[in-house]
Design brief:
Elements lengths: L9 E8 L2 E6 L3 E6 L13 E7 L2 E6 L1 H5 L11 E6 L5 E6 L1 E8 L15 E6 L5 E5 L1 H7 L9
Parallel strand pairs: 2-10, 5-7
Antiparallel strand pairs: 1-2, 1-8, 3-6, 4-5, 6-7, 9-10
Length: 153
């Protein structure tokens, strides 16, 4: 775990993909939209579910389950996409079966070593109903997949 050093709680939106629960920091949340279509690209990382057009911006959409386990099933519609900002001009999407609510999450604990893409997560945390969630590291996920995370100076 390398990104959060504060002992304060973090406001996050929790969401679910299959049986796995995730949380994304509110500081990165842009919007939640229905999935209308995804353009899949052959021979890409299984975590990349495809690309979607969001008001004339093509954004990558990831299946968080595939970041946790290599055995993650393909995603089936209908679903929603949680759009998160990398910076003012770039976004990415996260597929979700179910959207929860905004919760205060305690600082994350280290990840389970079995997590397939540890750079995509800040750690494990517990939401207010005592359910374990993986806290998404938006910049870490972008970096792990070669996406820009900051505007070039």
């Amino acid at each position: 775990m390398n990104k959060l050093t504060s002992d304060s709680e973090l406001r996050s939106l929790w969401f679910q993909c299959g049986s796995q629960r995730f949380a994304v920091p509110m500081s990165h949340l842009r919007e939640v939209i229905p999935v209308t279509s995804l353009r899949k690209v052959p021979m890409t990382e299984p975590a990349l579910a495809g690309f979607m057009d969001l008001r004339d911006q093509v954004i990558p959409v990831f299946n968080p389950r595939a970041l946790v386990s290599a055995d993650a099933p393909d995603f089936s519609l209908p679903a929603v996409v949680i759009v998160v900002s990398l910076h003012d001009q770039e976004s990415l999407g996260l597929l979700a079966d179910r959207i929860g609510r905004v919760v205060q999450t305690p600082p994350p604990r280290p990840l389970d070593p079995a997590v397939r893409s540890p750079a995509s997560f800040l750690g494990q945390t517990t939401t207010d109903d005592n359910t374990e969630s993986l806290l998404v590291d938006v910049p870490g996920m972008a970096n792990a997949f070669g996406l820009k995370t900051a505007v070039a100076a």
